[in-house]
Amino acid sequence: MASVVLSEAEKVYIVHGVQEDLRVDGRGCEDYRCAEVETDVVSNTSGSARVKLGETDILVGIKAEMGTPKLEKPDEGYLEFFVDWLVY
User: Fold this and answer.
1) What is the pTM of this model?
2) Coiled-coil regions in this chain (predicted)?
3) Which domain holds residue 53?
């Protein structure tokens, strides 16, 4: 994992936030956002889930299918991944 370089001002800001039990959004350090989790929300997938955490809304769908091995590696399987996302 890459190291993160913080300025002295950023370090002071973080330390004071912890000392004052306060986050940028006004919540206390031990306050959490309500979470909602739903499964099987997309009908044309092998599996799907929707997670809502505060203002964050994530929808994930997975499609799986069996295929044949590639000709050059007939004794090995493989996985292909395709990722699409939308930020709004």
Assistant:
1) 0.59
2) none
3) 32-65
Residue 52, domain member (yes or no): yes
Q: What are the two backbone dihedrals, phi and then psi, of residue 12, each rounded to the nearest 5 degrees? A: -60, -45
Residues 61 and 38 in one domain: yes
- The residue behind tokens 């909602």 is 36
Would you say 35 and 49 are in contact if contact means Cβ atoms under 8 Å apart? no
Q: For residues 20 and 29, is the Cβ–Cβ distance under 8 A?
A: no
pLDDT digits (tens, 9 = 90+) for 9-64: 999 999 998 899 988 888 888 888 889 999 999 999 999 999 999 888 999 999 98
Q: Which residues contact 70 (CB under 8 A, 6 or more apart)?
A: 76, 78
- Reported as a pLDDT band with limits 50, 70 and 90, residue 88 is low
Which of the 8 DSSP states describes residue 13? H
Number of domains in the chain: 2
Same structural domain for residues 27 and 38? no
